[in-house]
Queue: 2 jobs
Job 1
Amino acid sequence: MRYLVHMIKYLGSKRRLLDHIVAIARAVPGATTAVDLFSGTARVGHALKGAGFAVHANDYAAYAHVLATCHVQADADRWTDAATALLAELQRVPPAAGYVTRTFCEEARYFTPENGAHIDAIRDEIARRALPVELEAIALTALLEAADRVDSTTGVQMAYLKQWAPRAHKPLTLRLPALLPRATGGASTAHRLDARDAARTLTGHLAYLDPPYNQHSYLGNYHVWETLVRWDAPEAYGVARKRRDTRANASVFNSRRQHADAFAEVVHTLDAPVLIVSVSNEAWLSRDALLALLATRGDVLVVDHDVRRYVGAQIGIHNRRGERVGTVSHVRNTESLYVAGPGAVLDAVRRTKQ
């Protein structure tokens, strides 16, 4: 199976591993429910829902929660008609320059001023309508995905390109996000909790864990999306015009000192018989440390995949003004899927690899 739906560009996206993750989940005997504890763009949760699992997605970032509400919680059979009509109406809203235009088009260069004014007007209209939660999440996701198609970055919002990307000159166009019908396993849900709290709250037959693995905060890397969702006109700083609160809201999972203990707490607490953990060889946790930790949950199987690094690593190192200042040491990583659980389950997973 191939999952070719559009979702925003994202550091650490597991697009290339989706088939493998879904195959492992399907191999777990009797499994119909899954927990996605660090859901990000909800790409994995969306794929698991498409495979029939009732997915309980979680992420602390507001933009990630909206993406999961759209791609995981909202069901196509309930919302497609209403969302299609709403997006057509939003597309016709006249542009009106506001916070986005000033902050991300004039003080920075993430979008052209023309597209910035469309983003401002559409976001204001979404806020004005006081929509049902799931319908609002669909509209916001459509806006994020439309903005992502016309941005001028390498895929993260630490900086913008020195010269406009060709796509930046295309008009902002809303499209219906890739909604899925309700899964055969039941209703899916989206949550916005600290992962440690979510581990004590959410349950499933299996859990997928893809924690942050270094000091770079996703809120800092995707601060534009966070602001578009919160719509709180925050004070911004620096050339990148980041939200000032990104300095104060760092996750323990982005702390080298706290990461291992925080992740161990999740592993020990989570109520799911089978864990699927996605970890890069660039992560702070070594293979030996992760194997020892996951062995407390049962037998452990590791499947390695050679993958290209994120797009920024393909084009070199740039400063905050988008100027190239260095080259990267390597352009490929090993992404490993660790599966922990009863031996009989791992035997079933191994058979899918034969």
Note: The chain has one domain: 15-352.
Job 2
Amino acid sequence: MTKIRSVVAVPVTYSFARHFGGADKVPPAIASPSSHFQRIKRLGQAATFVRVTDDAGNEGFGECFGLPSPGPSAILIEELIAPSLIGQELDRPADLLADWRRYFITLGNTQGAAMEALSGVDMALWDLVARRAGQSLTETLGGEASTVPTYASPVPLVADPGQTVEAARAFLDHGFRAVKLKIGRADVTDDAAHIRALRDALPADMALMLDANCAYTLDQAHRLVDLLAGLDIAWLEEPLPPGAFADMRRLAGHSPMPIAAGENLFTIEAFTQLAEEAGVRILQPNITRAGGVSGLLAIDELAKKHKAALSPHGVGAATSIAALLQTCGALETVTLVEANRLLNPLRDGFHLSFMPDADGRLRLPPGPGHGGAPDRATFTDFAGEAAAARLWTA
């Protein structure tokens, strides 16, 4: 069996100011697309890119979540994880990273950069395993799918309900058949006005989801649910903070619409609490935070046990989105995969299409592995020659 030769991690940030030619030229809907970016502005897109090679010349690519900064996960990989993997035989990525997972959790690193670092490395290892076998990642995981169902996000947090409707209609024009609206204003009656305007404007058979980005108290969430009585809403996402499992169960018992959550959770233990203590039945892991490919496989098993649905978070650069789609092609509980359409050159600049086909579904990227390996020329344009040289060191 071949052994790991190198593990490299490079943080990359692409600013909206660069894209628009100045910070003052960034549109408000880009800088403040959701409730948690109203005072702390969204400055750009970021990710840590990971490359793993083996001694037979095979390579695999992964990606770690980039907010609020891609730097910490890169440091953890370069200084701690990478040296321990060199020379190790690779069979199952989760087994290879199990000691690191236990180590980080024992030290209290159950959230944030440490779990994101492991997620990116796991993704790269699975890519390498699939490429080594000459298979797509979906095939390596035992799946046969060529497309996955999707929805468009975000219809951003804008001032006027008419703007909300206009933004959603743009997604319909691009072939999406379901959309997600950002909410989370201080006054839930304002949110309700936008929701009603959009629900009235959408075709009756088009799914509408709501995403509050953890903006509400339990009382606010109860009030919003009451204001939306009778509306056809597919789910209410993250109405409360990530760890508020008891309050989430109370809300779920009060709300006629399903509660969805999970993008800000990092471990299978946390997702188990979400399913068992909060009673949430729409689980939304992010592959760059919740353990990579191995994490999604574990959460899929959890969803089967609790008769829950998996609707993964779709935020990231091209590598993670490709890995997400390929992984979802082999999972049993996936119902919808988010197609995040907030401006992101790190996602859309690498010659991959993440737009729906004629049936409103996303096609899995072609080729062996997950299909999201960055090409060096484009990566150099985004990150610079020094960063590219570092990623392709070995």
Note: The chain has a mean pLDDT of 96.
